[in-house]
Amino acid sequence: MSIRTKIAALAILAIVLAVLFMTIDAGGHWDYILPKRGKKLIAILLTGTAIAFSTVVFQTITNNRILTPSIIGLDSLYMLLQTIIVFVFGSTALTLMSKNMQFVLAVGFMVLFALLLYQMLFRREGRNIYYLLLIGLIFGTFFSSLSSFMQKLIDPNEFLIVKDKMFASFNNINSDILLIALAGVFLTGIYFARFNKYLDVLALGRDHAVNLGISYDDVVKRMLIVVAILISISTALVGPITFLGLLVANVAYQFLNTYRHRQLIAGASLISIIALVGGQLVVERVFTFSTSLSVIINFIGGVYFIYLLLKENKSW
Q1: Share of the chain above pLDDT 90, in %
Q2: Does 175 have pLDDT greater than 70?
Q3: I want to staple 76 with a disulfide (CB 3.0 to 4.6 A). Which of 3, 39, 143, 257 is the partner?
Q4: Contact 246, 301 (CB under 8 A)
């Protein structure tokens, strides 16, 4: 089966699942069902695409297929920002502030943090990408510890407000920011298109990329900013999801068996959409909301992560 046929099959499966998601058990109440499910479906499409897109790019520039962008602490920073707002101003600050303003502030701070992190990496020559990962891991642990400390000091009722934001939920999607999130993903995609041609070469490693005439540091810096924006948007929409990117990116590598990133990104995005829409259908129709999709994804992703570690260990 050719790669185009595989991608076409994934696209058809994604469309079928999306149609089922919109129409199953509608009961003819289209005026109510279509807008409600439509917003949720758009949010799932945006989240799935952003996570798959950013993970494939991040794994290419780090040259490691078991890493996800969450290792540089962006998820932990998001939770720290939410905790600080409740800790300093109280939970009423979150309710009084518009959803769009919350989204802009969260994305802005996460991108600013990414820029500072990258400035530390590229300020001196001779530092490789693993220096960035180490610093990001330390900051992520620090942010997580600081959040836990402040959560223990706040009022229990206000802690419940923070707790709602600690776990990804596709049943309580922040639909008020759909338009601004859609615009963010679209503009980021346009910006990324200029550098898409370099990813196939970056996958060969820094030395080969430099020898082939690519400005490695500049391209990696721009790609990391793209990753930070996409992760910020997906986290602000539904909350942090740890293992989805790892899962769909590695399934795309195995299923498509190609090095071309244009096809890998398209395939990973479609697999991510299939996993989220199909998973949400199972949660709603089979489990009747007795569990959440993020729990299922993190369980399957965690098992798959252990499998990848054992597989890599055997290869040594």
Answers
A1: 4
A2: no
A3: 143
A4: yes
The H-or-E segment that residue 96 falls in is helix 91-96
Query: Is 69 within 8 Å of 54 (Cβ atoms)?
Result: yes
Q: 90 phi and psi, to 5 degrees? A: 90, 165
* Closest of 316, 111, 88 to residue 231, by C-alpha: 111
Q: What is the DSSP string of 179-212?
A: HHHHHHHHHHHHHHHTTGGGHHHHTT-HHHHHHT
Decide which of 1 and 52 is more confident.
52
8 Å CB contact between 250 and 304: yes
- Using the structure block, give the residue that is written with the tokens 């990116």: 249
- pLDDT tens-digit map of 203-246: 888 788 888 888 887 888 888 888 888 887 888 777 777 778 88
pLDDT at 18 over 80: yes
- The three-state secondary structure class of 286 is coil
Question: Which residues contact residue 33 at a Cβ distance below 8 angstroms, ignoring those fewer than 6 apart?
Answer: 22, 26, 27
Q: 223: which 2 tokens?
A: 């790609």
Q: What is the DSSP letter of 72?
A: G
* Of 225, 273, 223, the residue nearest 251 (C-alpha): 273
First to last CA, the chain: 31
Residue 239 half-sphere exposure toward CB, CA atoms < 13 A: 17
Reported pTM? 0.83
CA 35 to chain centre: 25
191 is written with which tokens? 């910006």
Q: How far apart are CA 266 and CA 14, in angstroms?
A: 12
Residue 269: strand, helix, or coil: helix
Rounded CA-CA distance 49/43 in Å is: 10
pLDDT at 93 (0 to 100):
67
Q: What is the pLDDT of residue 279?
A: 85
- Tokens 């900013």 — which residue? 225
Distance between CA atoms of 173 and 165, rounded to whole angstroms? 11
- The DSSP letter of residue 123 is S
